[in-house]
Design brief:
Strand order of the largest sheet: 1-2
Distance between the termini: 49 Å
Structural class: mainly alpha
Helix content: 55-70%
Shape: globular
Strand content: 5-15%
Number of domains: 1
Oligomer: single chain
Number of helices: 7
Radius of gyration: 16 Å
Largest sheet: 2 strands, antiparallel
């Protein structure tokens, strides 16, 4: 897989082996997404909201790319061993009362966004850059600046 152009990009992900990296490479090579949101919708990792009157229903897509959704769910699970932010995200969601699969879907949704950016820029994953980006995002929030 390292001989294939862009083959090593997805192997840099925490918890990704040759098989998972190859599956991600095929998923992104076989379709050109206009945005990360489009990829999330295609793979079925993002929730859908449906409202009727005063009722709001949140559910996950059933008519999506099943192999893609499963691949990202597996990546979310495998990343729990070696990714700091994935562990914290999982703990946060579980503390909110979410079940294990729901927490993994949330992490998988984040992984779609991250892998989309990696694919577009053709750069491997770097955990320290990602953690710095998260910290920068938190610091630039208005509630953080105002202390509220």
């Amino acid at each position: 897989m390292d001989d294939i152009p862009n083959g090593g990009i997805f192997r840099s992900l925490p918890g990704a082996d040759y098989i998972l990296g190859a599956r991600l490479l095929v998923l992104y090579s076989s379709r050109d997404f206009a945005s990360a949101n489009e990829a999330q919708a295609f793979f079925g990792t993002c929730p859908c909201t449906k409202s009727s009157g005063q009722s709001i229903f949140i559910y996950f897509r059933k008519g999506c790319h099943e192999i893609g959704g499963t691949t990202f769910h597996q990546l979310a699970f495998c990343s729990l061993k070696s990714s700091q932010w994935a562990k914290k995200q999982n703990a946060k969601k579980r503390k909110e009362g979410k079940k294990s699969n729901h927490a993994l879907r949330c992490i998988a949704n984040s992984w779609v966004k991250i892998t989309y950016a990696m694919w577009r820029s053709k750069t491997p994953y770097n955990e320290s850059k990602h953690l710095a980006s998260i910290a920068n995002h938190i610091i630039n929030q208005p509630s953080f600046i105002l202390g509220g």
